[in-house]
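Our example copied in:
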Amino acid sequence: MTLESTALTFTYGAESVLTDIDLVIPDGRITALVGANGSGKSTILKNLARLLKPTRGSVLIDGKDIHTMGSKEVARRISILPQKPEAPDGLRVAELVAYGRFSWQSPLAQLNALDKDKISSALELTGMKKFAERELSTLSGGQRQRAWIAMALAQDSRTMLLDEPTTFLDLAHQFEVLTLLKHLNRENGKTIVMVLHDLNQAANFADNMIVVSNGRVLRHGPPSEVIVPEVIAEAFGVVVDFIEDPKSGNRLVVPVALTEQ
């Protein structure tokens, strides 16, 4: 599946948020959107997910404008996990994951054998099967995030979009969630697009990075081509040194000073 944007421009009233964003999301890979707060990275993700409509330009799935497609047609291709997902009080994990099958069901239809199989598989892949009957409110932050990812998995879409999936999680749960997403990409062929704040996490877990600055794409490509001093200085306003990760060989970012303002 090809997901791309062409001259994507988005404004809130008179405020320009995105300007002429041309992107092609690599199929079957992990892409991280990074940038300073307010740079526009989450707005790009929401436009790709059809949660927002471009002021100008377009978002295309396999060459077809996403806004000419039906909601279920889009949902069968793209799942979205927002930054702060909300669920009704008392909702159990299994019930949440079952919502992922909505785009495959006819109105008022009961869950069929395929639906139940997809739900069971999603719970298994995310390690949430043993929590299936637990209420979401009783879970830890990392467990809740895995439950939401399980719902997106049950949706059975090729591409998963996640807005800051590690926000509000401690370091161990951040690593747990990112490791799960990498497994889903490597073992299940999911295309992952996620907004991340931590450059080192992005470098270690993503195959492709998109640096957003002031509503424009500043640089995109493999981490080795993106994580360079001039790009980080312009996008984040910091001077950095680099050290080599002894396990992965990736360059790790160490901020040392603010750039001159």
Summary: The two ends are 43 Å apart (CA to CA). The chain has a mean pLDDT of 94. Residues 171-188 form the longest helix (18 residues).
